[in-house]
Amino acid sequence: DIKGFVFDLDGVITDTSVFHSQAWHQVADKVGAPWSKELEDGLKGISRMDSLEMILKAGNLQDKYTEDQKVALATEKNTNYLKLVNKMTPANILPGIKAFLDEIKNGGYLLSLASASKNAPTVLDKLQLTDYFPKIVDPKSLSKGKPDPEIYIKGAELIDLDPAQCIGVEDAAAGVESINAAGETSIGIGDKQILKDADINFADTSEMTLANIQKQMN
Ligand code: BG6
Ligand code: MG
C-alpha cells in the first residue's frame, strides 16, 4: 500500500525549471556551446556541476576550462538563477499542486522532498510551502545524483517508509529513472514521449489528484 509521496521540486511543484533553463542557456551562449531542446530536457534533474559538464560536452569544450573556471561559471549561473527566484511568490506554484498537497496531507500520507537543488529550501520559502516539507533530502549528502536511485531511496528513508510504499513525482527523465531504480511507483508530469518509463503519466500538474492516480494504478 502507498503511504507516502517523494516529490521533486523544480518543474513539479513550481515553474523554476524554466528559470534553470534560462540561466543555463546564458552559460551555453557565453561558452559557445549549442543550445537545443534535447539538451534543455536532458539537463532537468541534473546537479549543478553535472549540468555544466553536459553543456560543455555539447560544445566539445570539456577540456577548455580549469576546475576553478568551471566553478566560476556555475556560480555565475546560480547568481542569475537566484535573481529569478527572488522574484517568486506563491503564484509560482504550479496549477493544482497546493490542492494536491492538501489532499495527501489530509489523507494521512507522508511527504518528503527529493530535489537535486541546493536552493530548494529558498524556493519553498518563496512559495510559502516550507511547512509541507519538514523532510528534505540534502543534495550535499549524495554520492551520485539523478538518475542514480540514491536520492529517492533517501527520500523514502526520511519518512521511515519502504520505497515500495512510496510514489515519486517527477518532470525529468533522469528523475523517473531514479524513482524506478529506487523501487518506487513513478509519476511523470509532462511530455509522455520523454517520460515514457513512468508508471503513471500526467500531461500537467492540474491532473494530479488521488482519484486520477488510482485510475492508473494496477
Ligand atoms: C534540479 C533542476 O532540481 O536541481 C536542475 O532540475 C538543477 O535544473 C539542479 O540544475 C541543481 O540545482 P541548484 O539549484 O543546486 O543549482
Ligand atoms: Mg524537476
Keywords:
218 residues, alpha/beta, 10% strand, 9 helices, binds 6-O-phosphono-beta-D-glucopyranose, binds magnesium ion, globular
Question: What would your notes on this structure say?
Answer:
With 218 residues, the protein is α/β, with parallel strands linked by helices. It is 44% helix and 10% strand. The chain is built from 9 helices and 5 strands; from the N terminus they run βαααααβααβαββα. A 5-stranded parallel β-sheet has the order 2-1-3-4-5, with helices on one face. Helix 1 packs across helix 3. The model has no long low-confidence stretch (mean pLDDT 98). Bound molecules: 6-O-phosphono-beta-D-glucopyranose and magnesium ion. Magnesium ion (MG) binds next to loops.
Question: Order of helices and strands, N to C?
Answer: EHHHHHEHHEHEEH
Helix content bin? 40-55%
> Segments where pLDDT lies below 50 for 5+ residues?
none
SS-based structural class? alpha/beta
Distance between the termini: 12 Å
Radius of gyration: 17 Å
Tell me the number of strands: 5
Kindly report the oligomeric state of this protein.
Answer: single chain
Strand content: 5-15%
- Mean pLDDT value: 98
Largest sheet: 5 strands, parallel
Number of helices: 9
Strand order of the largest sheet: 2-1-3-4-5
Q: So what's the overall shape?
A: globular
User: Bound small molecules, which ones?
Assistant: 6-O-phosphono-beta-D-glucopyranose, magnesium ion
Mind sketching the topology for me?
Elements: E1 4-7, H1 16-31, H2 37-43, H3 48-58, H4 67-85, H5 97-106, E2 110-113, H6 120-127, H7 150-158, E3 166-170, H8 173-182, E4 185-189, E5 200-202, H9 210-216
Parallel strand pairs: 1-2, 1-3, 3-4, 4-5
Helix pairs in contact: 1-3, 1-4
The protein binds 6-O-phosphono-beta-D-glucopyranose and magnesium ion (MG).
